[in-house]
Amino acid sequence: MTATSSTSHFFENVEESVWEQVNRLYIKKALSEFSHERLLEPLRIGFEEDLGIYQVFSDSSEYTYSFKAKEMQLDHWNISVPSIVKKRGEEELPLLLMEFILEFKTQLQIPETMLETYLEEIASTLYGATFKYSQNKTTAQQLAEGDFQLIEKNMIEGHPCFLANSGRIGFDVEDFSHYAPEASNGFKMLWLAGHQSLTTFTAVKELTFEKVMHQEIGSIQYDAFREQLKSKKLDPDDYFFFPMHPWQWENKLSIIFASDIADNKLILLGEGEDIHQPQQSIRTLYNKTSTEKFYVKTALSIQNMGFLRGLSPYYMKSTPEITTWISNFLKDDEYLKTKGFKMLGEVATMGYTNQYFETFGSRSAYNKMCAVLWRESPLDKIQPHQTLSTMAGVLHIDTHGNALLKSWIDASGVSACEWVMSYLNAYLSPLLHCFYQHDLAFMPHGENLIMVLENGLPVSVFMKDITEEVVLYEEKENLPESVKRLVVKATDRVKSLTIFTDVFDCFFRFMAQILEEHCDFPEDAFWALVAQNIHEYQSQFPALEAKFKASDLFEEEFILSCLNRLQLQNNKQMVDLSDPVNSLQFIGSIKNPIHKYKENRIPEITA
Question: Where are the beta strands (DSSP E) in 109-208?
Answer without folding.
Answer: 187-195, 199-203
